[in-house]
Amino acid sequence: MANRIMLNQTSYHGTGAIQEIATEAKARGFKKAFVCSDPDLIKFEVTTKVTEVLEKAGLEYAVYSDIKANPTIQNVQHGVEEFKKSEADYIVAIGGGSSMDTAKAIGIIIANPEFEDVRSLEGVAPTTQPCVPIIAVPTTAGTAAEVTINYVITDVERKRKFVCVDPHDMPIIAVVDPDMMSSMPKGLTASTGMDALTHAIEGYTTKGAWEMTDMFHLKAIEIISRSLRGAVANEKDGREGMALGQYIAGMGFSNVGLGIAHSMAHTLGAVYDTPHGVACAMMLPIVMEYNAECTGEKYKEIAKAMGVKGVDDMSVEEYRKAAVDAVRQLSVDVGIPVKLDALKEEDLQFLAESAHADACAPGNPKDASIEDLKDLFRKLM
Ligand SMILES: NC(=O)c1ccc[n+]([C@@H]2O[C@H](COP(=O)([O-])OP(=O)(O)OC[C@H]3O[C@@H](n4cnc5c(N)ncnc54)[C@H](O)[C@@H]3O)[C@@H](O)[C@H]2O)c1
Ligand SMILES: [Fe+2]
């Protein structure tokens, strides 16, 4: 089977990039924007940075902000109703993965109303129409949802997060402006940045990885590893590096998939509402150790990309350990916890079954059984 690469039609990168939103909206003849953003971003006036650009250009918009972190089916269905009332003809998604994912689901259902239950979109959804045009503006440097064909929605009733994979949801334009990320507090910068590193490492080692996606992932590992500490210190270079690194990781993993660090993180998000980046960061080194035997020489390249010295003189065991150690060190340096207090022994069966059924699990380089997954979760206790 041929390898497929899907990316945005257009993307803008660098400080001040949000100014291009007005130019693009006008050039494409868009009339009214449906702005999807979450309540905190509105409160902290991050959303305003973009709505001011729209206002200055005389472009109309309506704001939708009933979006929580780990967004729910209800957030999507409410958004669909509000979109219909708004008479908008495109979406501007401003936020982290939660706002961008909600926007994608709304845009998909507006164009494909037979999926209004949302649950039926899980996995590879057989939609027939491209979603409402989306201009995506990330405010975290992590998910890369602005350049992925995925979105993740929480089913509160069934305590599950489910992944939807659908080329029809790809934002037509991504606007990756580090200035939109500068207001992130330290903890959020750290956890979302570790999500990006998890995308890069899982994408690099996933079963479907190939030369072109390896190129994206290795570059992303290198940029993220050298930029995350600086971004957490709110330094300009660090912010710029993370904005770019997380996007490059998205160019890769969206096209090949991830692995069980993500399956397990989705489950922790659904059951304990653990922030996605924190869950990924905690799982990543544990899963890397578990997967090591099925990764050939890939950890050698990961260790090198992370700046480990003397890798060429190391044995297989040494460079595999060096790669995992470098990930652990970065995680500790940016303040990620190693234990999850909420985790309980009696939840393990449900957690493991849920992670086993997650859409990211088949991509893992090593096939994990439910018992394996329980053991891996246990390492967080
Ligand atoms: N679509 C994809 O490909 C993909 C990939 C990975 C994860 N996800 C999903 O994305 C979601 C997580 O997204 P996220 O990690 O970007 O966080 P998020 O969107 O859930 O936001 C977390 C919190 O950070 C705040 N925040 C965001 N940007 C800020 C800023 N610039 N300044 C101050 N506060 C800010 C938000 O208001 C929110 O309270 C999860 O549901 C996850 O499953 C999607
Ligand atoms: Fe992620």
Short description:
Helix content is 49%, strand content 11%. With 381 residues, the chain is α/β, with parallel strands linked by helices.
Description:
The chain is of the alpha/beta class and 381 residues long. It has helices at 20-27, 39-43, 47-56, 73-86, 97-111, 186-205, 211-232, 236-256, 260-272, 276-291, 298-305, 316-333, 348-356, 370-378; strands at 10-13, 32-36, 60-64, 90-95, 123-124, 134-138, 150-155, 160-165, 173-176. Helices cover 49% and strands 11% of the residues. The strands form two sheets. Strands 1-9-6-4-2-3 form a six-stranded parallel β-sheet, sandwiched between helices. A three-stranded mixed β-sheet has the order 5-8-7. Helix 7 packs antiparallel against helix 8. It is globular, with a radius of gyration of 20 Å. The mean pLDDT is 97. The protein binds nicotinamide-adenine-dinucleotide (NAD) and fe (ii) ion.
Primary descriptors:
381 residues, alpha/beta, 6-stranded parallel sheet, 3-stranded mixed sheet, 14 helices, 9 strands, 49% helix, binds nicotinamide-adenine-dinucleotide, binds fe (ii) ion
